[in-house]
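Key result, reporting period 2: structure in, sequence out.
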């Protein structure tokens, strides 16, 4: 069985983790500071704070903006429930908006309709590895948090995603583009906001009391993150090669391949096809290929809301097939053959 996702860990990663363990510093220390420095210089932002997950990074980003009860935060409906949780942790209300059917990302026009006096922030994920209409959303005049959990290393108008938002967040969960097991980071060019995020991430050694969190990353995770980050350009190159093979196969069948806009690129964190999940997933499973719905359930569904036609259409007709640097040639052939067969049946 070819799993839907699989982390890529090499002897270099293991050596770096081993060195960090041997140093005797297990919790947040020098490696964390160096990982923050490395990712910031790669993305092109001034400040970073590594945390225990992407969800924690989102929570602290919202908290640093002063988000609380009575506030609203606009999020796309077609995304994982981590965003809903992060908004609800602050006591604010999540307001889902519909998506652009071409890129599956937040639709700026629908977002504009959902903004009001209570709107504190907009969270903009760059889903599946290609950027949302970021400038259109930023021009609405509300603080923007870029969610780069799936887009580290992807470009929007010649700059990396994560370099334009007031705050941007990353995830290094086991199956993300670069992995530390669990982990995340918040980055920003705003020193004051980052000071607040750093203060909220740990509870000890403070002169005053306020509710703070324990969202720190360990040094051995950071050592692995640094090692993975060095491989990011190679990871992306390999993902694009595999996507090229899938595009070739599906192009011949007349099946729509993943699209983006001319002013951005795609790192293919996910390779998503317009097929009904129920039948496609079962067919692929029979041929030994693990596939998934790219989004388990849209947020408006959890909230009991209606009026999200593009999200509904995407949910009814999208599947994600295995794509990661660790796939070998045999596996790629198995996936392409299975896709051919499944697409011809459905
Ligand atoms: C994975 C993910 C998150 C949450 O990150 P965790 O590290 O799992 O908490 C948030 N947003 C998006 C778009 C994600 O893909």
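The corresponding designed sequence is given below.
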């Amino acid at each position: 069985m070819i799993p839907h996702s699989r982390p890529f860990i090499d002897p270099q990663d293991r050596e770096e983790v081993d060195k960090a363990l041997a140093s005797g510093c297990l919790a947040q220390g020098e490696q964390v500071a160096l990982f923050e420095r490395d990712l910031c210089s790669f993305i092109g932002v001034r400040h970073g704070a590594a945390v225990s997950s992407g969800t924690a990074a989102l929570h602290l980003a919202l908290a640093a903006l002063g988000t609380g009860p009575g506030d609203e935060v606009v999020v796309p409906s077609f995304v994982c429930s981590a965003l809903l949780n992060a908004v609800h942790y602050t006591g604010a209300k999540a307001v889902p908006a519909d998506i652009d059917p071409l890129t599956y990302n937040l639709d700026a026009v629908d977002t504009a309709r959902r903004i009001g006096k209570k709107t504190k922030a907009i969270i903009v994920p760059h889903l599946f590895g290609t950027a949302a209409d970021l400038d259109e959303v930023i021009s609405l005049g509300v603080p923007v948090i870029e969610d780069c959990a799936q887009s580290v290393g992807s470009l929007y108008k010649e700059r990396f995603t994560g370099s334009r938002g007031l705050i941007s967040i990353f995830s290094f969960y086991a199956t993300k583009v670069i992995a530390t097991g669990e982990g995340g980071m918040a980055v920003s060019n705003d020193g004051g906001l980052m000071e607040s995020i750093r203060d909220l991430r740990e509870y000890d050694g403070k002169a005053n009391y306020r509710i703070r969190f324990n969202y720190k990353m360990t040094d051995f995770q950071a050592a692995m993150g640094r090692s993975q980050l060095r491989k990011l350009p190679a990871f992306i190159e390999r993902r694009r090669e595999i996507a090229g093979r899938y595009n070739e196969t599906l192009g011949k069948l007349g099946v729509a391949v993943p699209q983006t806009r001319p002013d951005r690129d795609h790192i293919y964190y996910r390779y998503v096809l317009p097929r009904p999940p129920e039948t496609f997933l079962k067919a692929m499973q029979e041929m030994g290929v693990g596939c998934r719905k790219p989004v388990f359930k849209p947020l408006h569904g959890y909230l009991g809301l209606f009026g999200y036609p593009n999200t509904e259409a995407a949910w009814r007709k999208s599947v994600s097939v295995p794509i990661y640097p660790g796939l070998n040639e045999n596996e790629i052939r198995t996936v392409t053959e299975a896709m051919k067969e499944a697409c011809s049946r459905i």
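The pocket of pyridoxal-5'-phosphate is lined by residues 53-55, 79-80, 82, 125, 147, 149-150, 171, 173, 184 (CB under 6 Å). The chain is about 40% helix and 15% strand. This case is discussed further under Risks and Mitigation.
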